[in-house]
Amino acid sequence: MSSEATLRVTVAALMHATGESQTALARGLRITQGAVSNKQLGKAAWSLADIDRLSAHYGVPVPDLLCGPTRAVEQLPHVRRAAIVGGSQEVFTVA
Predict the structure, then answer these.
(1) Over the range 4-38, which residues count as b (16 or more CB within 10 Å of their CB) and which as e?
(2) pTM for this one?
(3) What gap in Å lies between CA 41 and CA 38, rounded to an integer?
(4) Per residue in 73-86, pLDDT tens?
(5) First CA to last CA across the chain, in angstroms?
(6) DSSP string, 1-31
(7) Which one of 31, 50, 67, 84 has the fewest beta carbons within 10 angstroms of its own beta carbon?
(8) DSSP character for 32?
């Protein structure tokens, strides 16, 4: 699997673990939902700046984001996890 594909799967896993929708993630990253959708569909690439914002948003170090979904979700702070997998949670906006 390519690095880009791994990151897309990782973001999807983090969204699922936190209960975030694309709209909520977009708000947290201060980009549009359409931009998140395009990145997740592989129509646009996640940039290095995006990866830094994802790291800050989820509280997961960049190297762990790039290791794949299992490692990233393991490193996700418990306060960021949804009470029920697939549930919802408050959105944190990154500066």
Answers:
(1) eebbbbbbebbbebbbbebebbbbbbeeeeeebee
(2) 0.85
(3) 5
(4) 999 998 888 876 55
(5) 32
(6) --HHHHHHHHHHHHHHHHT--HHHHHHHHTS
(7) 84
(8) -
